[in-house]
What does this fold into?
Amino acid sequence: MKAIRRLTVRTVLPQPLRGLEELVLNLRWSWHHETLDLFRSVDPGLWEAVRHDPVRLLGEVAPDRLAALAEDRRFLRRLEAAIGDLRDYLTAPRWYQALGADGAPAAIAYFSPEYGIAAALPQYSGGLGILAGDHLKTASDLGVPIIGVGLLYRHGYFSQSLSPDGWQLEHYPAIDPNGLPLTLLREDGGEPVRITIGLPDGRDLAAQVWLARVGRVPLLLLDSDVEDNDRAARDVTDRLYGGGTDHRLLQEMLLGIGGVRAIRAHCRINGHPAPEVFHTNEGHAGFLGLERIRELVDEHGLSFDEALEAVRAGTVFTTHTPVPAGIDRFPRELIHKYFGGPAGLPGVPVERVLALGSETYEDGDRTVFNMAVMGMRLGQRVNGVSRLHGVVSREMFGGLWGGFDTGEVPIGSITNGVHAETWVAREVMDLAAREVPALMDGHGWEGVLGVPGGQIWSVRRVLRERLVLDARRRLRESWRQRGASEAEMSWIDDALDPDVLTIGFARRVPSYKRLTLMMRDPDRLRALLLDPDRPVQILIAGKAHPADEGGKRLIQDIVRFADAEDVRHRIVFLPDYDMALGQMLTQGCDVWMNNPLRPLEACGTSGMKAALNGGLNLSIRDGWWDEWYDGQNGWAIPSADGLSDSDRRDTLEAAALYELIEDHVAVSFYDRDAAGLPRRWLEMVKHTLATLGPKVLATRMVRDYVRDLYAPAAASARAMSTGSFAGARELAAWKTRVMKAWPAVAVDHVDSTGDESPHVGENLNVRAIVNLGVLEPDDVAVEAVYGRVDDTDSIVTPAHVQLTRDGAENGRVRYTGEIPLDRTGPFGYSVRIVPHHPLLAGTTELGVVAQPPDPPGMTNGDLR
Ligand SMILES: *Cc1c(COP(=O)(O)O)cnc(C)c1O
It folds into this structure.
């Protein structure tokens, strides 16, 4: 008989061991080796059996073992030390506390639909979640006062296995929050906090809030599986990225609107300062901006436009993908249904909501509501996640700032990073601590160059062997599930080899990642694997989205190839890619391969994990690798990304990949000196660690966010809110006035002196006569734009210089200024008028500009 309800009965720990509970309830254990060691010593066998999940460990450990530990003085001393260390970690001042209170926000809310904190908390599907987890952990390490917000999915993301013929099977094991390191957020009186959201048919969607402690960072997870909800409402948080459009929208309303309400409850109950900055990751949480507008309208009497300004100033929006399928778009009618009726947000008219998400640019679809577009309109600061992704995003979304060249679109970038303590193998950490002690403080990376190659090589051997053993265990489990008998599995004992060049390839399986590119020429791949002198082994893992039949076919193609008797000891597909397998792979592989269709990989982070463990990257120059590949830290697979024929592109890129592996990767791996060491290889590894190490760390990333986005956003938000939101009121009124008057604003005349025979180093005197209509000179900035011009007279990478007001002429305003002729060759300039207000983040923010109809004053001569 099936149980109708599942509970986790917690162990009552003997008094001396109560501290274990405190340790378990803070997820810091997931990246703290000493605490993990302590858990292991509770029961080493069980620790392996429960896959390093301490809640399960404590749930299943035998009472007599607990009784013995309660008497074990040595264990108790270690326990006490671990608790003392955790408390220190939670309270001591860290990097952020040294910044001083002026710039630094009192708190930052971080919203993401998924979080990858630990394999035992399966609330992530891929890169976005892992990044969010690493962001929170790093914020904790640096003392950044972040509050994370997400949803608790009762079935998380699916776990994957294979059918006998290699087809992906999905399982959704139900999780019991009581069996996870979570506590329920409760009112002072003890009753659980209830968040509710009104629905169009008069129903309420209710949720409770789970609190996960990620070191110093609280993570609030909303969960709609509560008794007051009907079946449909209870299922809103049933699984990650499942269900239809309505379901998706409800999840996002709960995340955005409910998330803000959960933060308010948390701050009220726990005396936490209110966030000054809200960081939205991808469009999914975008409704948080609407809820904050509602609050301001409701509690401070602001108009929608005034509230919008106040909210925008304190909002950071990060776009995480250039792939259209990764961006949420809803039919406009659906938005109408949920935000239009009496259940909509008071003070937030549905027409305004619809306008925020409408694709008003050329090629935009007028029938959809675009969450990313809304995110950009609701956030004064927007960024992509690598330099190249910044470029691509400026092109993709440039239409929102129509008046400006792509280069000036106000979308910046902060390249992602990874949390070292989570991803770097213990052995590598120990080697670093021994050989490069300065590294422990985050500098002195060049010290890696002096580490003896033999020491690195022996650590690499340990990690490769561990991976091989773990892969054999996983293979055996997978073959057993697929129906193989023991006799059919004896080959697995010798599958893979701890001394063979090991290539890893693991990621989600959307088509742009091209899981099967390596199989483009199966004979050539077979030859690589079976090379008698320089063999290669490949470990592959990845999940296809449950609705993605194409992706499942790719997995099946790989599995079928890897099932063949002649190659199965050299190429394996390991099911159920998760954080634990990710750690094993990125630590144990010599080479981390990635071959996306450039430029669709926004950043990618798995290759960073490999690099920090002494692996080398072999990748298309996309995402982070485009930025930091330097010719010596790995290999770049040439991309044929100009080619429109995708089939031919695959063939060319696959051929280049084989060639690189044969002629370069395998050659240098197997080129050994008298001591048996691959000298050249180890030089590359050291160079990689020394130069990439400091860049790929999430500490670099989080510091960048604090300095470039959070602190400026907090300053903007304060400028809006002080004096009963005087700034927001003023800016909203100003914008309305300026936008109304803008059509009359024009550059009427431009001339210059000094352009007869210009020489580099001289200045050009520019004069412009402009018509400001009803606007005041203070409302605008008049700028000269100048620089090198191309064959079409376009100014390439333009520089700007502000012109100064120099009197009036017939109701027009005269501006003058000097342009430095700072380069030889073809040079040009123009003049433009942009809106100017001290509360804007930049001159392009409003997306409007007035320029001369025909750029006059072009001095298209050569400068000498
Ligand atoms: C690191 C990681 C990712 C993200 O890596 P990409 O390089 O973006 O593919 C996804 N899933 C898991 C389990 C990871 O560990």
